[in-house]
Design a protein that fits this description.
The chain is mainly beta. The chain is 0% helix and 52% strand. It contains no helices and twelve strands. The two termini are 19 Å apart.
C-alpha cells in the first residue's frame, strides 16, 4: 500500500510517494505491476498511481529520463502515459486517457533505449496499448518503481525482466 499527499500535474508539481528499485530497469527490459485496489482516491482530478521510471527517483523536478504509465484513481478516466520530452526532468507531455479504470488491473512498461511503450490489462494476459513515447536523457539503468501522486493504492507483484522473456502470470 502506498499513500501520498502530493500534486502531480503537467509542469506544475512533481510530488509523489514511491517504492522503487535503484537502477533496477536496464535497457531492453519490461516492468509489470498489478494495482489491486484504491483505498483513498483523493480529492483532485490529477491523482495517479502506476509505474514510474527516471534516472534518479530522489530528484523530483530535476532528473531526466522520466516516464510514467499511470492509472487515474477515478474510474471515469482510465490509463495514460506522461513523460519528459525535453530532458529537463519535468513531465511536459501526456497522452489522452484510454478506457475506464477498473480494479484490479495490470500495467506493463517496455523499455528499448529511449523508447517506452505502455500497456494495461484487466486480466494480466491480454494487453491494450496506451502509447509509445520517446524519452531523452535515459541512463543505461534507471530507477523504477510504483508510485501514487495523491491518495492511496495497493500494488502487487512488480516484476522486471528482459524483453522477450516469458510473460508474467497473474
Amino acid at each position: 500500500n502506498i499513500q501520498a499527499g502530493g500534486e502531480f500535474l503537467l509542469e506544475r508539481a512533481d510530488q509523489y510517494g514511491a517504492i522503487y528499485l535503484k537502477q533496477g530497469l536496464p535497457d531492453n527490459s519490461v516492468v509489470t505491476v498489478r494495482l489491486d485496489k484504491v483505498d483513498r482516491p483523493g480529492p483532485a482530478y490529477g491523482n495517479r498511481a502506476g509505474i514510474m521510471v527516471r534516472n534518479d527517483m530522489t530528484s523530483p523536478g530535476k532528473s531526466p529520463g522520466y516516464v510514467v504509465l499511470a492509472a487515474s484513481l477515478f474510474e471515469s478516466n482510465g490509463w495514460d502515459m506522461e513523460w519528459d520530452a525535453n530532458g529537463d526532468g519535468r513531465i511536459d507531455q501526456h497522452t489522452e486517457f484510454a478506457g475506464y479504470t477498473l480494479w484490479p488491473h495490470w500495467l506493463k512498461l517496455e523499455r528499448r533505449g529511449s523508447k517506452y511503450t505502455g500497456y494495461y490489462s484487466l486480466d494480466g494476459e491480454n494487453w491494450a496499448k496506451v502509447s509509445e513515447v520517446e524519452v531523452p536523457g535515459a541512463s543505461a539503468a534507471q530507477d523504477v518503481g510504483m508510485f501514487v501522486s495523491y491518495g492511496s493504492a495497493r500494488f502487487k507483484d512488480m516484476k522486471i525482466s528482459p524483453l522477450g522473456a516469458p510473460a508474467a502470470k497473474k
